[in-house]
Design brief:
heterodimer, A: 257 residues, alpha+beta, five-stranded antiparallel beta sheet, three-stranded antiparallel beta sheet, B: 200 residues, 9 strands
Amino acid sequence: MKLKLSSDSLILRIIRGNFLHYAPIMVVALAFGALCGLQWNSQAIPRPLPHGYESGHDSRVSLAIQHLEAEQEELKETIGRLRKQLDEYQQRAAVNREMLEEISRELARQKMLAGLLAVKGPGVQVILDDGQATPAAADPNVYLIHDYDLRDVVNLLWMAGSEAIAINDERVVATTSIYCVGSTIMVNDTRLSPPYLIRAIGDPSVQEALLYNPAYLREIKRKAELYGLRFEITEAKEMTLPAYKGSFPIRYARLGD
Amino acid sequence: MIQFHAQRRTISTSDADQIAIITSLVEANARLRQEVGALEDQLREYQQAAAGRGVLEALVDELNRVKIVNGLVEVSGPGIEVRLDGPINALDMQDLINELRNAGAEALALNDERLIVSSVVASAEDGTMILNGAKIVRPYVLRAIGQPETLEKALLRNGGLLAAIKKDYDGLDVTVTKRDKIILPVYKGAIAFKYATPVD
């Protein structure tokens, strides 16, 4: 199909490729159009018509009012709905915040109890070490500190109301076992080497009363006397016990019944 | 066109009213739309915060786990039951508890008393035992939650603690039973820190 081209057709000239040549004209045309549009819009709503057109004019204006009123109603409904939703969120957030605070507080307390926090306070420290005398004919076992010796001291310190206990740098926690592999004592699956330093935070007078009580730790005291086993008790005004660094693998225990 | 309308601008009273109505409606609606936008923004923030509720759930999980360790919640699970009927020393009982902990016991109880970190089995004057301030009488039933086979093997191995205890006591009847489900009570004692304070 062959187009019939008129020489003054701007559009066609542009199509033909003389765009740049006509660019200034285009800019003016576009600006004019934009201006018209702007004017049109600003005039669009309050656009009175001659009285002769009254009825048509009225219906159009009242239609606009109706539209605007309907829009307003819708907006108000939306606002009402949003405010209600927001209020629910705000209340829930307040509850969550309270819960979060309470849980955080409780968790800190439980962590303290579990030995997951480093703690400081007064107490006693007990040093235990193998006997230095050379075993002659005697059983070499009597010169050594055994896992059960450490267990007995730790248990006695708990009995004395201690609040936190550590052996060397291992904190004694609920899952801690003190046992020996050969002649090596293990605590929290960590090898300890002598001397063994047992530190317990609590009331030193109560702790010492039990430690010195001849009814307790009889075996250790006897070995200390006979074989030079080291057993020393020192009061401490303030000491810091490290936090438990191991894990609490809970694989079988479930909450509740 | 613009010219055309400008020429004919003759406004009646009712027209003025209508214009006023429309103008106020347009303005009011613009304000309302702004309010909707502001409310939607706020709501979006709360919704995003609500999506972060996983934090709360993770905290609750952690809390429950630590409470299980601390003995401050009732727990259940598989494990073993060690029944000791006869005379036995509190220290040997304590060693037995240590043995079970060493074998991976996650929670323990002796008779109706949950064992927590500071629980010590002590001998009472009358030959019975005291645990958590409560009197424990025969038969002694030590229950542990954990991998049943592992716990059982630790106790029954040759030259193990239980073998030594059996040899040491005449008339001590010991039975070890694996259980699919054991329910351990919550620790009933009070816990307070008077001397220890956390280090930040």
